[in-house]
Amino acid sequence: MKLNEVISWKNGFFHFEGNEPEFVLRKLSRWYNVEVVFKRKINDKFYADIPMNTMLSDALKALELTGVVHFTIENDKIIVN
Predict the structure, then answer these.
(1) How would you write the pLDDT of the chain (81 residues) with one tens digit per residue?
(2) Which of 11, 24, 32, 41 is deepest in the core (most CB within 10 A)?
(3) How far apart are CA 51 and CA 40, in angstroms?
(4) Strand intervals (E) in 1-81
């Protein structure tokens, strides 16, 4: 774990710096207690700082701003399109 990740965590943020979508969504799925289902492989990387007190829908909207991924929430599942 990198120092900036530890500092971000201590300050209440998820810090993603060039992370694979699977890694990012695994962290979010554990935090928000939801399952993630990938409908396709995503080859891009994510760079974001997301407050841990953010609602799940807002965290996903922030990741959607990259333009490379779209999410749907169904029951307790995040569907990655």
Answers:
(1) 688 888 888 899 999 999 999 999 999 999 999 999 999 889 899 999 999 999 999 999 999 998 889 999 898 899 998
(2) 24
(3) 27
(4) 13-19, 35-38, 46-51, 71-74, 77-80
Closest-CA residue to 24 (of 7, 5, 39) = 5
**Domains of the chain (ranges, CATH numbers):** 3-80 (3.55.50.30)
CB 42 within 8 A of CB 79: no
Question: Which residues are CB-contacts of 14 (< 8 A; sequence separation ≥ 6)?
Answer: 8, 24, 27, 28, 31, 48, 49, 50, 51, 52, 59
DSSP 8-state symbol, 42:
-
Q: Which two tokens stand for residue 57?
A: 């829908």
